[in-house]
Every structure is written in structure tokens, then in C-alpha cells.
Fold:
Amino acid sequence: MKDARPSVLLIVCGGIAAFKALELVRRLTERGVRVRTILTRAGARFVTPLSLQALTGERVSEELFSLTDEHEMGHIALSRGSDLIVVCPATADMLARMAAGLADDLAGAVLLATDTPVMAVPAMNVRMWLHPATRANVATLAARGVTFVGPEDGVMACHETGPGRMSEPAMIADAIMDALRPVQPPVHFPVPRPALRPLHGLRALVTAGPTHEPIDPVRYLANRSSGRQGYAIADALAQAGAAVTLISGPTILPPPPGVTLHRVETAVQMLAACDAAMPCDIAVCTAAVADWRIATPVTSKIKKTPGAPPPSLALVPNPDILAHMSRPGPARPRLVVGFAAETDDVRDNAVAKRKRKGCDWIIANDVRAQTGIMGGNENEVTLITATGSEHWPRMSKDAVACGLVRRITAAFDIAPDSPGTDTPDLPPDGVPA
Ligand code: C5P
Structure:
């Protein structure tokens, strides 16, 4: 009889982060998930089959040509009997093997033979993660529908700092539970969220949060952006099936499940991260990028000298990421959406801004202090396209994100119920407003 529990097939590859897979198993089994595991040869150098077996209560599969395994649970059946396959840690080597479709070990054979959704949790050295080969492999896998959790920025076992560190087990467990849960319709937005994954096969880039522009090692210029709207959009795009890269300035928000997060601090870093994440089909720039940075930030703390006048700060303009993404050319995303946070003449300023920046749509919002929108959980927006505008009443930022994803889905002319990758060009005038 089929086990009623949701079932995950966990593929544990070799890497210093493999020990975290044990903690992940514990968290999943505590939440009532059946976890079966495949341990690769390299993975077995970091965790033992015995510890996985003890935690899961299931046999651990290791070899492709094990007669006992093939007799009791052939590798095809192993791939079919699960609701989700999770590759954790997903090493650079494993991502390359998945992208190439290699099937010379059990993990590879199962991944090639499966039609079950696959989630990868990368963990590797920062240079390996940023290497063009890995970027291309991740893009290939994302385009095939593999979702990614992490990696995070941080100090790694190799003492280098940057993206590559594996997400924490609690976060991975949340992403898995989300992936196992059927998509819920939003509570606030009147139109139901697309039932399946209509943006599957499309790549989306979202910028979010403020930027911090250093003055000296302890001081910086910043703004009140919380990043909530951008994170909600990244989340909604990922739930609709897009492969989402979120480039975030400093925020306290947890990464949305299944989204590849790159944390940056400054506008210049955000621009570089956006360029590294290209190409993409959809770009949504919600970040409140600082307009200026300090011309010459200093590396020592600026001292107060009694009696001396305060220092004057010379500013230089920051690159405009939205305008940069909107430049015509073969690399331009097919849809570029900007935001216009305004305090006066909101609509008129936003209409002018859309033209000036060259983006397809702009979402205007009123950020006067009394609206509580900047930093809050709600938003009241006007969607402006080339042909008109559409005012949405005040609603949660999650609901705005759902509404935007519905507009994007419609613009790419994908019926909500057909998870296709065939995306005709946008109509020249954008959505009817
Ligand atoms: O010019 P303004 O800051 O009002 O433009 C807002 C829009 O432009 C937002 O979509 C924001 O993410 C984007 N922007 C940007 N880079 C900048 C300034 C704004 O991407 N340097």
C-alpha cells in the first residue's frame, strides 16, 4: 500500500556541507515527510550510510548496479515513488553532470529517468559558483524547471567569502515543505493565482531592498526600503514556475523558497550581480537604489575633531540599473518592469519615468510617510504601460505580487492552465490598460 506521507528522495553528494543533510533529514521527518536517500560515492566520504539510515528509517541506496537494490527497488521506481527529488548538497560537479544528463551512477540515472520535480541546494566555493561553466549549468537546469535554494553569501569552509555557502537546513526544509504543498490561492487578491506553473521555462531577475553606500567603514548612506515588495514578487514568480534570481540589498528578510538569492550592498555591486545573472526573460527592478554614492569612501573612520567643521561629502551618481537593463539590444529581457516610488504627482512622474528609463511597465506608488507604504506590508499601486494605466486598490504586497505575476503571465500569452515553455513575443503595446 502506498505510504500516505509526502515523500522526498534526497540525493546527498560529496562536499563539506553534506553533514547538514543529516539535520535536513531530521527536520523533514519531524514534519511527517518520508525521506529516502541516495548517497553518491563522494557523499559517502562525508556522511555514512548508517547515519542516514538511522535518521530516515529507510535503506540507503548507493550503487547503480546493486542486484539487491534493483530487485527490491529498481532505480526507475525509486525516481517515480517520490513527490520531490532534492539534491543536497548540489556540488558544482553534480550540477554539471545533471546539465549534461550523465547517468553513470545511481544519482545520475535516477535524475535522468525521473519526471518528478527536482530541487537543487548548491554548495561550493565562490569561484566555482561564479565560474561561467557553473552559471551556464544552473541556467540550463533552471530552464528545465529545476528549482534552486540558495546558495547564500558568507564565509565558507575554504575561508573565502561570497555566494556559494549552502542554505541552512531550516530554510531548505521550509522550501521543501512549500514545494510539497499545493499552490494556495491568495487571500487578498480577487483573481486566483495560476493553478499550475505558467512561467515554467522562463528566467526572471528581481532587484530588491535598499543599497548601502559606504562613507567610511562604519557609516553609510541608505533609505527606508524594506525589500518586502521585491521579495514578494520573487516569491510569486518562483511559485508560478519561473527560475528566479533575486539580487537583494541589505534586508532582514529570509530568501523566498526556491529563489536564487545574491546579497549585495552597493548599487555598483547590484549592477554587477544583475549583469552576471543575465540573460533573463523578465526583469523586475523594485530595489530602492541609492541615487548617489560617496565619491571617495575612506577606509579609516572619519574622526570628529573638536572645533573643526563637519566634513562635506562629495557625491557621484550611481548607475541606473533599470535604464541599463532596458537598453535595446539582443540581451534585453523581453519584459522590463520598474517601480516609481513618488511623493508628489505620482502618476505623471511615473509616466515620464517609464519613458525616460525605457522600461515596458512601471508600477507607481505613493511613498509619503502617512501612507506607511515604504517599509510596511501593504501597497497601493498604479500599473503604467505604453498604452494606459490601471489603479489597484490598497492590498498586501503579496497580493500586488500575485497581480503582477498574472499580468506577466497574460503578457506572455500563457493560459494559466497550460504549463508551456512556448512564449510568444509581448504585444508591442504591452498589456491593455
Ligand atoms: O529614478 P528612480 O529611483 O525614481 O527610479 C525608480 C526605478 O528605477 C525603480 O525600478 C528602481 O529599482 C530603479 N533604479 C535603478 N537604479 C538606480 C535608480 C533606480 O534600477 N540607480
